[in-house]
Amino acid sequence: MEWGAREKLLKPGGDDGYLWHVLLVAAFGHLAPKPFRLIEPNGQRPPYLLGYAHATEEGLHRHVAAFCDPAIASALGVSSLAVKVMPDSFVAGRRLGFELRVRPVVRQTKDGDRNRKREIDVFLHQTRARPDADKPSRVAVYADWLAAHLAKGGAALDTMRIIWLRRSAITRRDRERELRVHGEKGGGPDACFGGALTVTDPIAFNALLARGVGRHRAFGFGMLLLKPLPR
User: Fold this and answer.
1) 8 Å CB contact between 164 and 191
2) I need a labelling partner for 89 at 20 to 30 A (CA). Which of 126, 148, 179, 226 fits?
């Protein structure tokens, strides 16, 4: 936070995703992890950052040693970097538990201008599209949205629950390099889902892990965290 304040990367009303994005790129350049996620364990232990990257531990340290500003390395805690290699693939039919921080939104034309798009909560979008129908279940709408994303990435959604749901605004620089808070007043949906999935296409699933789910993957959203389930 001290580094971000010095670099004028903090904006009232915005989240810290852009700050982490800039910090990671400043430290690791094109090797910077994306997607990533800041884990905050409710005071049980200090916050820590997880990320997927196409780089070895040696490669990351080599880039830091050659190019990284010492103040950035200190702010990020590069000395505590720990790396593990992900499996080459998960076999088709493998069932996995998951946790995912994501922004469940759809893009919508703004004010009739095709070139102007705004993001809207997919639940609100469906509710407004059917004003005379019964109000859909938020969990069901989010589950359908997630199932569609997973299906494109080689996985089938088995179960899903909402771990938490809040609103947050995205901070980023505009074309004039001014730091601005984007999105509707009060921000957009910022959700954490948990559940189980089944791998259907190992190659596509590996690509999904590397790419992430949904929008704003460069700012702390979309990292699919996995855990084993009893067979």
Assistant:
1) yes
2) 148
Phi, psi of 136 (to 5 degrees): -70, 160
The confidence score (pLDDT) of residue 184 equals 59
pLDDT in the model for residue 134? 79
Cα–Cα dist 5/129, whole Å: 42
Domains and CATH numbers, the chain: 2-80 (no CATH), 94-227 (3.30.70.1210)
Tell me the C-alpha distance between 134 and 227, whole Å. 36
CA–CA distance, 66 with 48 (Å, rounded to integer): 24
Q: What is the pLDDT of residues 87-116, one digit of tens each?
A: 888 999 999 999 999 999 998 776 655 555
CB 215 within 8 A of CB 188: no
